[in-house]
Automatic annotation (TrEMBL), chains A, B:
MF terms in GO: metal ion binding; peptidase activity
Ranges for domain Peptidase M20 dimerisation: 199-358
InterPro entries listed in its UniProt record: Bact_exopeptidase_dim_dom, Cyt/Met_Dipeptidase, Peptidase_M20, Peptidase_M20_dimer
Keywords per UniProt: Hydrolase, Metal-binding, Protease
Source organism per UniProt: Maribacter vaceletii
Record GO biological process: proteolysis
Designated name of the protein: Acetylornithine deacetylase/succinyl-diaminopimelate desuccinylase-like protein
Length: 462, 462
C-alpha cells in the first residue's frame, strides 16, 4: 500500500473539514434538548458512508436513537470486518471551562500535539476515531485496495448506555455476521508508544435519592432535631469505602479476577511516570485502593465514584435551610467476571440497608455493561499488531484500559466474534472533559494504519 | 384600651391589603438579581411608617441595603421602645414546590389556621410580623394612646447576616438610645399556647470548596486512581459527626453552656407531642445528638447542618465524569457562650486539617452571630407577659428557640438594653420553605397585643 501516505496528504484538508462538519452538530444523547441534533448526525453518517463507497446504508430505527448500518461486500468467500463506533457525544458542561465553544471545532497546538489538535466535544470520543474508518474505507475503495468485506454499525446511544443496541444486535445476527469486530474508541500510551487495548472495565451507573422531611425546613428551628438528607447522604456515600479505599458493599469483590504476579509484572513494564501524571493533573498525590499501583487502580481494579451530587441551596449567598431531598449519581467501574446487573443489585440492597431511620432512600439504576478481556494470540490481534508496526515502526504494547465499552462483551456473546480495539487517542485528550481534542497527527495516522489491518487480517485468514 | 379590637375589626381588610402590597415585592437580599426590589421595599417601609404616624423617617444608606429609621418622640421623660425588624426575605426556591407563586399573596385555610393564612415568601419572616408593629403604632397614634416614645429600625440584610447593621448601630448609639428593644421575628408554641422566646442560637455559616484534578476527568480512565473531590467531600463532611451525632471539631463544645437538671426539667414541661411532630414532617423517626430530647436538640444544643451541596454532573441522564471541584454550604447553630468567630476559625482549621493528600480545600466564612439568652425577671419581660395574658387570656411560657437573630447580642452590647422577643408565628408556618404563610388571626392578634406591651412597659417603668 505504497500510496496511502500520498492519498492522505492529497486529501488531508478535506478529511479534516469533513470531520469538522460532524463535530459542529451537538449530538448529546444524554440531554433530550439535543435529540434533533442526534438524529441529524445519524443522517450525516449515512451520507458519508455512501460517499466513502458503501453499497448499502440503512438508518435502522430503535426505541431510542437510530443505528446506522452500512456494508460493502466484495466477495462472500472473503473475511468480513465489522466496524463499530458511535456518533453521539457527552454533554459539554461545564461549558464555562472550555477555551473555545465545544461545537465550533478549531485546531490548536499543544505540548503533546505539536502538529495541532482538533478541539471539540466528540473530536476523539468518538466522532474523530469513528470517522477514521470511514476515510480508510474511502481510500481502499477509491484505490481498489479493499481486500475483504466490511460492515459498519454506528450507534447514537453509547454515552447513555447503548440501551437499544443489544436488541438490535440480537435481532440482526445474520446481517451483522463477521469474522472480526474493529473498534476505535480507546486510546494509546503515547504517539511514539503505540498500544492495543486488550481489556475494558464494566460499568454500573445508578442514581440515588435520600428523602428526609416532607419539605425544606428552617435549619434553626429544626437543625439538630431531624435527619438532614444531605448530611445523611454524605455519611452513606463515605461509608462505601473503608480506610484502605476498598469498597464495602457485601459481595462486591466476590467475582473479581485477581491477576497473577507475572501478569502484574508484565503490566508494570508499560512506560509510566508518576510525576508527569501528577503534574498533568496538578495534584500533589494520587489516591486509591491500598496495595495497587496507579495503572492497576484504573485498569484491573473495580472502583466506585460519585459523578454528581446535589441538594439544598446552591445559589449565591446563604440560605439556612434543611433540604427535603439530596441526590447523587454514582458509577462503579467493574472488572471482567463481575456481572454489572448483579453488582447493581448488590449496591441497591446495601444502600437501602444502610439508610438510617428518619430518611427514605430510592436507588434508580441508570445503565451498565460487562467488562471484557481480549486474548492476544488471535489473528485479529496479530493483524492489528502488524498494522501498527508498519505505520509506527514499532510493535504495539497490549494494555488494559479503565474505560468501558459495554457492548464489546455483548458482541462476543451475540455475534460470536472477537473485538480488536485500535485506539489512536491519548488519555490527555480530555474526553468527557472541557477542551476535548484529538491530534491531527493521530487522526491521519489512524486513517493510515486501518487499511493495513484489513490487509494483514485478510492474509492471515487464508 | 377597650377599643383596640374595634379598631382592628374596622381596618382589618386594609391591614391585610397593605401587607399584601409589601409581600408582592420580591426583596430577596441573597440574590443580586433582586437588588432593585429590595431598595423598592425600603422606600415602601418609609412611606408606611410616615403614614402610621412617625414624625421622622430616614432611609439610612449602608455599604449594603439601606436601614430604615423612624421615630415618634412624644416626651423625652417617658421610656423609649426600639422596634427592630427586617424587610428582606429568603430566596423562594425551590419555586416548583410552591402551591401558589411566592410573591402573589393569597389567603388559604389550613388545619392550624382555620380562619385563613396569608401565603407568600416573607408573610411571617419577617414582613408580616414587622408590619404588626407599624399598624400597632397607627392605632396608638390615631387613638391618642401612645404611652411612650417609639423608634423603628428596619433593615434589609437580616437573611444574609446583617453585615452592615453592626456598623450602623455602633455609629448611631445616641439616635438609637432606648429602654427596651422589641422584636417580632420568632414564633410561639400554638395559638392557644402563647410563649415568649427567651433564648436564641448563634450562627456560623461557611462555604467549602474541595479541588482535586485541574479538570473534569473521564471516570473510566482515571476512576480509582485519583482523589474524587465529591467522594472526598462526603468523607470530610461525614467525619464532622461521630456515632452519637456529637460534632467532632476539636474545641467545638468547650464553651457550651450545660443546663442544670432543673432547667431541663422546666423546659420539658412545654407542651410537645413527638408523634404529631413526626407526622407533620412525614418522618418515621427523629434524629440527633444522643442524650438530648428533640426540643433540647433544636434549642439548647449546637448543631452542624449542610444547607447545600453540589459538584459534578447534575443534569438529566448520566455522565461518567470525575469532577474537578465539589462544594458545600455548611451552617452551625451555636448556643450562648460559643463565640461565632472562634467557632468559624475552629471549623476552618479542622476542615483544612482533615483534607487528605490529593485535594486542596478552601473554607470561606459567609457570616455569623452570637447566641442570646434574655432574663425573665425584667420589667420588659413582665410587660410582654401581661400583654399576652390580656389578649390571649393566659400567661405565656418562656421558650428557647433554635433560630438565630444574630444582632440581638449586638444590640445588648452596643445599646446596653435588653431585647424582648414577641413572636406570633408558628413553627409550622414554613418560614424559609416553600409555601411560607402567616395566620390572619396571628397577624391581627399581634397588632392587638403590641399596644398593651407599650402600656404595661410604661406603667412598670414609673
Amino acid at each position: 500500500m505504497q500510496d496511502v501516505k500520498t492519498y492522505i496528504s492529497e486529501h488531508k484538508e478535506r478529511f479534516i473539514s469533513e470531520l469538522f462538519d460532524l463535530l459542529k452538530i451537538p449530538s448529546i444523547s444524554a440531554d433530550p434538548a439535543f435529540s434533533k441534533n442526534v438524529i441529524q448526525t445519524a443522517q450525516k453518517i449515512k451520507e458519508t458512508l455512501l460517499h466513502a463507497g458503501s453499497d448499502v446504508v440503512e438508518i435502522c430505527e430503535t426505541d431510542g436513537f437510530p443505528i446506522i448500518y452500512g456494508e460493502k461486500i466484495i466477495n462472500k468467500k472473503l473475511p468480513t470486518v465489522l466496524v463499530y463506533g458511535h456518533y453521539d457525544v457527552q454533554p459539554a458542561d461545564p461549558i464555562e471551562l472550555w477555551d473555545s465553544p465545544p461545537f465550533e471545532p478549531v485546531i490548536k497546538k499543544t505540548d503533546k500535539h505539536p502538529e495541532g489538535a482538533i478541539f471539540a466535544r466528540g473530536a476523539c470520543d468518538d466522532k474523530g476515531q469513528m470517522y477514521m474508518h470511514v476515510k480508510a474505507l474511502e481510500f481502499m475503495v477509491n484505490t481498489n485496495q479493499l481486500p475483504c468485506n466490511v460492515k459498519f454499525m454506528i450507534e447514537g446511544e453509547e454515552e447513555v448506555g447503548s440501551n437499544n443496541l443489544g436488541v438490535f444486535v440480537a435481532n440482526n445476527r445474520k446481517k451483522l455476521a463477521n469474522d472480526i469486530i474493529l473498534i476505535s474508541d480507546t486510546g494509546m500510551i503515547a504517539n511514539d508508544i503505540p498500544s492495543i487495548t486488550t481489556g475494558l472495565r464494566g460499568l454500573s451507573y445508578v442514581e440515588v435519592e435520600v428523602t428526609g422531611p416532607n419539605r425544606d425546613l428552617h435549619s434553626g428551628l429544626y437543625g439538630g432535631a431531624v435527619a438532614n438528607p444531605i448530611n445523611i447522604l454524605t455519611k452513606m456515600i463515605a461509608s462505601l469505602h473503608d480506610e484502605n479505599n476498598h469498597i464495602t458493599i457485601p459481595g462486591f469483590y466476590d467475582k473479581v479476577e485477581e491477576l497473577s504476579t507475572e501478569e502484574r509484572a508484565e503490566m508494570a513494564k508499560a512506560p509510566f511516570n508518576l510525576e508527569d501524571y501528577k503534574n498533568a493533573l496538578d495534584i500533589n498525590a494520587v489516591y486509591g485502593e491500598k496495595g495497587y499501583s496507579t495503572n492497576e487502580r484504573n485498569a484491573i481494579r473495580p472502583t466506585l465514584d460519585v459523578n454528581g451530587i446535589w441538594g439544598g441551596y446552591i445559589g449565591e449567598g446563604a440560605k439556612t435551610v434543611i433540604a427535603s431531598k439530596a441526590y447523587a449519581k454514582i458509577s462503579m467501574r467493574l472488572v471482567p467476571n463481575q456481572d454489572w446487573e448483579e453488582i447493581t443489585q448488590l449496591f441497591k440492597t446495601h444502600f437501602e440497608n444502610i439508610a438510617p431511620e428518619g430518611v427514605t432512600v430510592k436507588v434508580t439504576p441508570h445503565h451498565g455493561g460487562q467488562g471484557y478481556v481480549t486474548p492476544i494470540n488471535t489473528i485479529g490481534y496479530s493483524a492489528a499488531s502488524k498494522a501498527y508496526e508498519t505505520t509506527f515502526g514499532k510493535k504495539p504494547i497490549p494494555q488494559r484500559s479503565g474505560g468501558s465499552i459495554p457492548i464489546v462483551a455483548l458482541f462476543e456473546k451475540e455475534l460470536e466474534s472477537k473485538t480488536i480495539l485500535m485506539g489512536f487517542g491519548l488519555n490527555s485528550d480530555a474526553i468527557h472533559s472541557p477542551n476535548e481534542h484529538f491530534g491531527v497527527w493521530n487522526y491521519l495516522k489512524g486513517i493510515e494504519t486501518i487499511p493495513y489491518f484489513y490487509k494483514f487480517f485478510t492474509e492471515l485468514s487464508k
